[in-house]
Amino acid sequence: EDKVVQSPLSLVVHEGDTVTLNCSYEVTNFRSLLWYKQEKKAPTFLFMLTSSGIEKKSGRLSSILDKKELFSILNITATQTGDSAVYLCAVYSGGGADGLTFGKGTHLIIQP
Amino acid sequence: DTGVSQDPRHKITKRGQNVTFRCDPISEHNRLYWYRQTLGQGPEFLTYFQNEAQLEKSRLLSDRFSAERPKGSFSTLEIQRTEQGDSAMYLCASSSLTTPLARSSYEQYFGPGTRLTVT
């Protein structure tokens, strides 16, 4: 059974801090890993990673994948209160159920 | 707005009643997914369609659940004889499968969800 584990489950930091969110996975026939941001609504897409060692970057957010060690990290620099959300990691394996397998998410709170 | 839409956004029903939700995907997307999300958990895959064909069903989808996508456009998810354990957010997502290795095929775009409360 595919498994995605995120850590920490919750994190409270001050505005301006840098945070690193972790995602490890065990899946058959790995295809891609995706990061989503979820506020009080549906998840919104952030990144999709398919190759090891290639950093994806969007503004203050960046992510990288290690397919050998089976994990990914999501970095947020110079955090702002608007970054407060649940960050979900999901893996598409292409085997068994064809949907995404999600982790439980990291609940990030940015204090002013 | 050309995103994924879902209707209704909220539904309160009594145990034992049937409910039906609708999802309208992004118009050019041929893949449509249903997920269920409970508090403190990530979304859990339920089923997906490629065009009108239902290609996969999770074991989470009991016999009381049925989904259709009759013309390959919108989809409906029906829950019969609802139970309190069915209370959750039901999310719909869509993606575009152009070729088997197309980058865009794995980027799923989510709708706002239908929050179901069974009393």
Protein architecture, described:
The complex is a heterodimer of chains A (112) and B (119). Chain A has 112 residues and is mainly beta. Chain A has no helices and eleven strands. Chain A is 0% helix and 55% strand. In chain A, strands 2, 4, 5, 9, 10 and 11 form a six-stranded mixed beta sheet that branches. A five-stranded antiparallel beta sheet of chain A has the order 1-3-8-7-6, with no helix packed on it. The model of chain A has no long low-confidence stretch (mean pLDDT 91). Chain B contains no helices and eleven strands. Chain B has strands spanning 5-7, 10-13, 19-24, 31-37, 44-50, 53-57, 65-68, 75-79, 88-95, 109-110, 114-118. In chain B, the strands form two sheets. In chain B, strands 2, 4, 5, 6, 9, 10 and 11 form a seven-stranded mixed beta sheet that branches. A four-stranded antiparallel beta sheet of chain B has the order 1-3-8-7, with no helix packed on it. Chain B is globular and about 40 Å long. Mean pLDDT of chain B is 88; it is low at 99-104. Classes of the chains: A mainly beta (112), B mainly beta (119). Chain A binds chain B through residues 4, 31-32, 34, 36, 41-45, 48, 50, 88, 90, 92, 97-105, and chain B through 4, 33, 35, 40-48, 55-56, 58, 91, 103, 106-113.
Outline of this structure?
The complex is a heterodimer of chains A (112) and B (119). Chain A is mostly beta strands.
Oligomer: heterodimer
Count of DSSP E strands of chain A?
A: 11
Poorly predicted spans of chain B: 99-104
- Number of H- or I-type helical stretches of chain A: 0
- Give the overall shape of chain B: globular
The structural class of chain A is mainly beta
Query: Which protein chains make the most extensive interface, counting residues with beta carbons within 8 Å of the other chain's beta carbons?
Result: A-B, 24 and 25 residues
- Radius of gyration of chain B, in Å, reads 14 Å
Q: Element order, helices and strands of chain B?
A: EEEEEEEEEEE
Helix content of chain B: under 10%
